[in-house]
Amino acid sequence: MIKLIECPRDAMQGISGFIDTAIKAAYINQLLEVGFHTIDFGSFVSPKAIPQMRDTAEVLEMLDLHHAKSKLLAIVANVRGAEDALHFEEIDFLGFPLSISETFQKRNTNASIAEALKTVESIQNLCESKGKKQVVYLSMGFGNPYGDPYSPELVAEFVEKLAQLQIETVSLSDTIGVATPELIKSLFAIQTQAFPSIEFGAHLHSRPNSIPEKVEAALRGGCLRFDGALKGFGGCPMAKDELVGNMATEVMIESLENQGYILELNRAELAESLKLANFVFNL
């Protein structure tokens, strides 16, 4: 079964002008009507680092979750953020950004890789005590611009460490949009075969015209979990100066259906969500 993870948090976080809390909540409430598996709705991180997400707790209080089938995911960057997020029963998943790149790990969470792995372990223990799940994003998973070591074998070494910590979901992240279809296919094929107990996801940033071939490549590698953002907005503000957008969810949906997958989504609500995205992101 295909799992679609819609990421308004990733779409919003790099925008300099603050989006009103009520507008954020209205947009996420609309997304909850579509039927996505998970909504990556916010983050519990330093407001100095990501000022756009400083109102995540307030947004959560405004969400209508009574009839929602979608689960909620919040990004955290340290143990304190995880503890803050775990105060809310409504949150199902905590996402942590672990990087293959030492340089980017420092830029993104102000910690070394060794320190980040200890944080992953601590968050995993907290999640297990609270009945939550941790999703680890392996950022720079397909290469990086910083000259740090990178290879598919290095990715496998990181996944092995996560498997030892009993992490069940790992999203391979192309933070700056450098992955080729060939690398996407081979990397997912290697990981899914080597670690059958782990669910692997694709969090790929991409130029619009490359989305279909990247989706097909991930599918051929055994990936059934895809992150995206309507209209392809967003990108990581901690990566490069020029943001490479998320995979546009509507294009991913078309690509997946062209591959024969049946997606149980409310099309009318999806159309309304696309209209609201135009307003939220001033497209």
From TrEMBL:
Residues 1-271 form the Pyruvate carboxyltransferase domain. SUPFAM superfamilies: Aldolase. PANTHER family: HYDROXYMETHYLGLUTARYL-COA LYASE (PTHR42738:SF7). One of its GO terms (molecular function) is metal ion binding. Keywords: Lyase, Metal-binding. It comes from Algoriphagus sanaruensis. GO terms for biological process: ketone body biosynthetic process; L-leucine catabolic process. The keyword Lipid metabolism does not apply. The keyword Thylakoid does not apply. This is Hydroxymethylglutaryl-CoA lyase. It holds the Pfam family HMGL-like. Belongs to the HMG-CoA lyase family.
